[in-house]
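Dear H.,

Thanks for agreeing to be a second pair of eyes. The structure we're designing against is below in token form, covering all 375 positions.
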């Protein structure tokens, strides 16, 4: 099995914090959608005999595509058995959601919606330069549920300048009250090149204090845990059986193909990524050329990727697979590097798996990098 990621780089306006490739020029939509179908035709053989198990339309803002445009895109994905495909997700913005639009999605193979809510606090949304209000977000979720889309996920952001524990608590309470089965929550990151980073550099905003952000993360884990959610990946929480199949495949090193400008692909031994420029991407695809840069992964790259993706999840790092896939030397090295973190109770070995503890989650990046093999 394999995953298919499709990048839709169109946005009505850019959010303050976003560093994903996107733009507000809609004049190239038709050309771009045709190029997506052409790239799929050119590259689907890269998946070999694997069938497409999951499809994910991300962005950008995929809900900026009309239903007719989405239908054209799905029709161009020849060879995919939609009945066999277990999860087909589209990212949407709350203010794009209407009853007519949801009913249109129902008529397509789409069976999961990921909604970019980010916050149920209007002051947060204004700061982030989001297009919707809290009320619109609540209405959009309920509209999806009323029409029959129960497989929903929302994104939330914490650690915003001026955000308090109380306001964050209200965000979580609202998400739980809406009976959404999947929640992704991210600490605000100031990525270079974003409008948010420029404000930070200019001294116009101040980062949330680290101890406050950690308290917010702690509160998130406690509240969602009490509501029956499983914390199955550092930033992802789901009710039992409602994990994101597509993203879980990333963390389990299952191959995936990414089509569209800036989309990444992985086949188990190499990575590739398309040019992050819409016009250049279309030019290349239309002329029958590939639009990606290829990187062959070294043995150490593969080991490090396995450590990174495994430790991010509640299932942890299977030590027997480390030995089988990467040999006894890497197995011994991994345990040696983990020793101090086990002693300090940031890591634990349980049933042959190395897992982050609750304490270790807060410093996961540092712990995981300590286990990397660097020559």
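And this is the sequence the design step returned. I haven't edited it by hand at all.
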């Amino acid at each position: 099995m394999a995953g298919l990621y499709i990048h839709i780089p169109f946005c009505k306006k850019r959010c303050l914090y976003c560093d994903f490739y996107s733009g507000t020029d809609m004049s190239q939509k038709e050309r771009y959608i045709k190029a997506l179908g052409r790239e799929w035709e050119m590259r689907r053989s890269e998946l070999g005999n694997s069938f497409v198990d999951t499809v994910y339309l991300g962005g950008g803002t995929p809900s900026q595509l009309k239903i007719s445009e989405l239908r054209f895109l799905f029709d161009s994905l020849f060879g995919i058995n939609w009945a066999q495909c277990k999860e087909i997700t589209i990212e949407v913005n709350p203010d794009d959601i209407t009853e007519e639009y949801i009913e249109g999605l129902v008529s397509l193979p789409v069976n999961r919606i990921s909604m970019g809510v980010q916050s149920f606090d209007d002051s947060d949304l204004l700061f982030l330069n989001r297009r919707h209000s809290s009320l619109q977000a609540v209405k959009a979720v309920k509209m999806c549920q009323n029409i029959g889309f129960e497989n929903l996920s929302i994104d939330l952001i914490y650690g915003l300048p001026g955000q308090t524990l109380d306001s964050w608590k209200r965000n979580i309470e609202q998400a739980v009250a809406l009976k959404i089965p999947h929640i992704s929550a991210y600490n605000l990151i100031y990525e270079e090149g974003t409008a948010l980073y420029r404000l930070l550099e200019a001294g116009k905003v101040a980062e949330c204090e680290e101890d406050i952000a950690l308290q917010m993360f702690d509160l998130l884990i406690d509240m969602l845990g009490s509501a029956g959610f499983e914390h199955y990946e550092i930033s992802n929480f789901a009710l039992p059986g409602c994990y994101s199949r597509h993203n879980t495949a990333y963390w389990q090193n299952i191959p995936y193909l990414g089509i569209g400008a800036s989309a990444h692909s992985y086949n188990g031994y190499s990575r590739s990524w398309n040019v992050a420029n819409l016009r250049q991407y279309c030019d290349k695809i239309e002329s029958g050329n590939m639009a990606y840069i290829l990187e062959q992964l070294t043995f150490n790259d593969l080991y490090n990727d396995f450590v990174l993706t495994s430790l991010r999840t509640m299932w942890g790092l299977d030590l027997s697979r480390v030995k089988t896939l990467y040999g006894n030397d890497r197995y011994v090295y991994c345990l040696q590097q983990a020793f101090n973190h086990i002693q300090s109770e940031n890591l634990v070995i349980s049933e042959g798996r190395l897992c982050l503890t609750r304490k270790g989650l807060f410093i996961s990046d540092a712990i995981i990098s300590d286990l990397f093999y660097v020559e």
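Two observations from my side: The domain at 300-371 is CATH 1.10.10 (Arc Repressor Mutant, subunit A). The chain has two domains: 2-250, 300-371.

Warmly,
E.
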